[in-house]
């Protein structure tokens, strides 16, 4: 008998319950929690909204303007710092969007496995 699973039996010796170690329980109860890349605690609608999100229009316009000025080498030191900050935000948003899409994919895969 596996150390991860122990059965509870009645007086007739029939299995009527099961005890799992915590790791086995967590794998069964919430398999996505074991994957550090998955975003836990968000609904599918929230994950989809995040996956489809974009930089705020004002920030996107500012980024576009700074990129044009940067191509023409017309940025001050403050503007370069602002451009770097906006590009870092874009990078973080891209990572979050990718993790949301990955989490949605994992949820779809789990749903398919349950049905099969």
How does this structure look, described?
The protein has 116 residues and is mainly alpha-helical. 60% of the residues lie in helices and 9% in strands. The protein has four helices and two strands, in the order E-E-H-H-H-H. A two-stranded antiparallel ribbon has the order 1-2. A hairpin with a 5-residue loop joins strand 1 (5-9) and strand 2 (15-20). The longest helix has 39 residues, at 77-115. The protein starts with a strand and ends with a helix. The mean pLDDT is 91.
Overview features:
mainly alpha, two-stranded antiparallel sheet, 116 residues
Q: What is the element string, with H for helices and E for strands?
A: EEHHHH
The number of helices is 4
The biggest sheet, with number of strands, parallel, antiparallel or mixed sense and barrel status, is: 2 strands, antiparallel
The best one-word shape is rod-shaped
Class from secondary-structure proportions:
mainly alpha
- For the largest sheet, list the strands in their spatial order: 1-2
**Which stretches of 5+ consecutive residues score pLDDT under 50?**
none
What level of helicity do the residues show?
55-70%
Distance between the termini: 27 Å
Q: How many beta-strand runs?
A: 2
Rg, Cα atoms, Å: 24 Å
DSSP strand (E) fraction? Answer: 5-15%
Taking all residues together, what is the mean pLDDT? 91
What's the multimeric state? single chain
